[in-house]
Specification:
By secondary structure, the chain is mainly alpha-helical. The protein has a domain of 204 residues. It contains seven helices and no strands. It is rod-shaped and about 185 Å long.
Length: 300
């Protein structure tokens, strides 16, 4: 800041006149004028000094603010990256793949659960039929045992009664023990006994050895046991087929999940080529899945 010259042009002549004049001859008016001029000069110098201090304070505050304030970073706006050609449709293609794969995933899961139900029902039916077959086979064994015991007792009674030859047709005698036993043959066993007696087993060596070897000896329980056993095998085959079809739909679900993965990742990549590759893989897997699903049977 510039210094204040206390000897201004207005004060200098007055001071020279005052120095040359004798103190006794100094006019009062001149003294008053000199004092007024001196006071005005002092006031001006004090005002200039105050103004200088204000400027120094304002300059110091501005320098402090400039030192502490962080410079504002100005970033230039980035120009949007524009994709040309068919790259612009990759998002739409990925969305379509995701939608179709989601629907196929739900359909595959539904069919897998349906075939799982068929499998459970078939296995349950096979187990029930096998148990019933075993029961029928046990009953057939018991009935055969009864027939064998009655037949052997009847032959023993005939031997004791002395009948070397049996008339044909054989007519049991209720008064004899053999007749008593013959009348208690089961209805399924009686036709086989008559057919065996017609072969003249006592004199013909080529005759069947017993009625149990005759074709007429057929037990309903044995027939039922065989039928139930075959039915059980068919039900088990249905269950195995259901398991296979269920596994096929599980595989289709996994393929659909792969489509979701490739399409979802591909839509998030920044490079158009990588996006295209991932979405293309998802599309190929989706087409393969659709072709496989068309060949699978549907269970409603």
């Amino acid at each position: 800041m510039a210094s204040v010259n206390r000897t201004s042009p207005a004060v200098a002549p007055v001071r020279r006149a005052m120095r040359h004049a004798s103190p006794l001859r100094r006019p009062p008016g001149l003294v008053i004028v000199a004092r007024n001029v001196q006071d005005a000069a002092d006031n001006d110098s004090r005002g200039v000094a105050r103004h200088g201090r204000r400027l120094r304070r304002s300059e110091g505050y501005a320098s402090d603010v400039s030192d502490t304030a962080e410079p504002e970073q100005v970033t230039a706006p980035q120009a949007p990256v524009s994709e040309s050609g068919w790259y612009r449709h990759l998002d739409l293609v990925a969305t379509v793949l995701l939608a179709v794969a989601t629907v196929l995933t739900a359909w595959s899961a539904f069919q897998s659960s349906q075939w799982g139900g068929v499998q459970a029902i078939a296995y349950s039916t096979a187990a029930r039929e096998r148990a019933e077959s075993n029961q029928a086979a046990t009953l057939a064994g018991q009935e055969t045992t009864i027939d064998v015991m009655l037949f052997t007792d009847w032959l023993a009674a005939l031997h004791e009664e002395g009948d070397a030859l049996l008339p044909e047709p054989y007519v049991p005698d209720p008064e004899q023990y053999s007749g008593f036993l013959f009348e208690r043959f089961r209805p399924e066993f009686t036709p086989a006994v008559h057919a065996w007696l017609a072969e003249d087993p006592l004199t013909d060596p080529a005759a069947p050895p017993s009625p149990f070897a005759m074709d007429e000896y057929v037990l309903a329980s044995t027939t039922e046991s065989v039928r139930l056993d075959k039915a059980s095998e068919r039900s088990a085959a249905v269950a195995r087929l259901a398991i296979e079809r269920k596994d096929h739909y599980v595989l289709a679900t996994v393929l659909c999940a792969s489509v979701l993965f490739f399409s979802g990742i591909g839509s998030k990549l920044g490079s158009p080529r990588k996006r295209t590759a991932m979405i293309a893989i998802g599309g190929v897997v989706l087409l393969t899945t659709v072709g496989v699903l068309i060949t699978f049977p549907v269970q409603i």
